[in-house]
């Protein structure tokens, strides 16, 4: 199995600010190229694109290819399960949204302290075992966004989980909040294959600071910045799949080109990445991956990830004009950063453990003067 998976969280859009406006024609074209190049793995989830990602893959892949031509992964939205019957309801709805009779990989989505506790209490693990026994999920596992210690506990108590999906990338490798390396080591200790999410850190590593770009280009002018990030995690032993949320045909073409005949990083390339990590660590202000989990519950409709993105750009490149312009555009018709009432509904959802309320103050200070 080739190690690149097509992530359905950031599909191309017709309208930049509207996650529901999926560019289906482009998704179809991308899926065709992906499959024609010998790739098979598609990853989606209930909330992606406000509920439309699963249907987009149905139209692009399920309706147009024989079932054995692709592998489909989907996830139980643990954060929306409040009673045991919800598992069955969500799962059946997902089969229908995707137009399939089974999933090749099925995950409990976003386990951390809170969702793990509710999954234990409501019978989420029993439900997963039942799916596997019934053949409705060929492989069962979970995605995880918390500390390595909790991952160890889950894998110890639930050896029936066959794989884990982790946020691994070269910039979070030693991060204390994400703990990429520590989580990876726990998965290895339990002999669980790893599926990697956020290898490019929400797109951030596709556009590293200028000093880092110079280092990469000096080594090889042809290699994209994203390719370094994807090859970094694909080179790790035990990684079975690297998901990339590709939002254009060009990105997909680039990714499939170097992953068709994947070559692990050599020692010199690893050294370059270590230097790049130092450069980036000096410049990222807010480690947001644009997952959007925080957005829906905000009573002020604050466009949190968009504001963080413009703030990071301002912090990285030092120019205030363009980010300020983007800030005005992004805040049109939505709450400004200064309108945050500090209810913290958003912070409960953030897999990156960002103190959103504090960071919004920085944003307001930078762009609302
Ligand atoms: S703390 Fe602020 S940004 Fe977060 S949900 Fe509440 S109002 Fe929205
Ligand atoms: S602030 Fe956190 S939850 Fe919101 S988009 Fe960024 S990483 Fe995701």
UniProtKB/TrEMBL annotation:
The keyword Nucleus does not apply. The keyword Nucleotide-binding does not apply. Coiled coil: none annotated. Keywords: Iron, Iron-sulfur, Metal-binding. CDD domains: AKR_Fe-S_oxidoreductase. It comes from the Bacteria. Pfam families: Aldo_ket_red, Fer4_9. GO terms for molecular function: iron-sulfur cluster binding; metal ion binding; oxidoreductase activity. Residues 331-360 form the 4Fe-4S ferredoxin-type domain. This is Aldo/keto reductase.
């Amino acid at each position: 199995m080739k190690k690149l998976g097509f992530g359905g969280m950031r599909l191309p859009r017709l309208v930049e600010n509207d996650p529901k406006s999926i560019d289906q024609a482009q998704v179809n074209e991308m899926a065709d190229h992906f499959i024609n190049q010998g790739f098979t793995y598609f990853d989606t989830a209930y909330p992606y694109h406000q509920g439309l990602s699963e249907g987009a893959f149905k139209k692009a892949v399920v309706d147009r290819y024989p079932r054995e031509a692709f592998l489909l992964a989907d996830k139980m939205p643990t954060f929306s399960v409040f009673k045991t019957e919800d598992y069955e309801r969500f799962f059946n709805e997902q089969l229908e949204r995707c137009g399939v009779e089974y999933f090749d990989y099925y995950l409990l989505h976003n386990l951390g302290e809170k969702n793990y506790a509710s999954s234990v209490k409501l019978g989420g693990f029993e439900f997963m075992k039942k799916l596997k026994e019934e053949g409705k999920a060929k492989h069962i596992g979970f995605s995880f966004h918390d500390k390595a210690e909790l991952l160890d506990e889950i894998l110890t108590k639930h050896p029936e989980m066959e794989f884990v999906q982790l946020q691994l990338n070269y910039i979070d490798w030693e991060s204390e909040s994400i703990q990429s390396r520590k989580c990876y080591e726990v998965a290895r200790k339990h002999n669980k294959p790893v599926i990697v999410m956020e290898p490019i850190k929400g797109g951030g590593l596709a556009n590293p600071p200028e000093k880092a770009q110079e280092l990469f280009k000096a080594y090889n002018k042809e290699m994209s910045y994203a390719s370094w990030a994807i090859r970094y995690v694909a080179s790790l032993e035990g990684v079975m799949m690297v998901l990339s949320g590709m939002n254009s045909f060009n990105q997909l073409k680039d990714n499939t080109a170097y992953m068709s005949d994947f070559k692990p990083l050599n020692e010199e390339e690893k050294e370059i990445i270590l230097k790049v990590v130092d450069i980036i660590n000096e410049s990222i202000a807010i480690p947001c991956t644009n997952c959007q989990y925080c957005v829906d519950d905000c009573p002020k409709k604050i466009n949190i990830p968009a504001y963080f993105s413009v703030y990071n750009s301002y912090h990285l490149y030092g120019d205030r004009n363009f980010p300020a312009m983007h800030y005005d555009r992004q805040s049109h018709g939505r709450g400004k950063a200064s309108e945050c009432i500090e209810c913290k509904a958003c912070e409960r959802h953030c897999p990156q453990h960002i103190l959103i309320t504090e960071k919004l103050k920085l944003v307001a200070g930078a762009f609302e003067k």
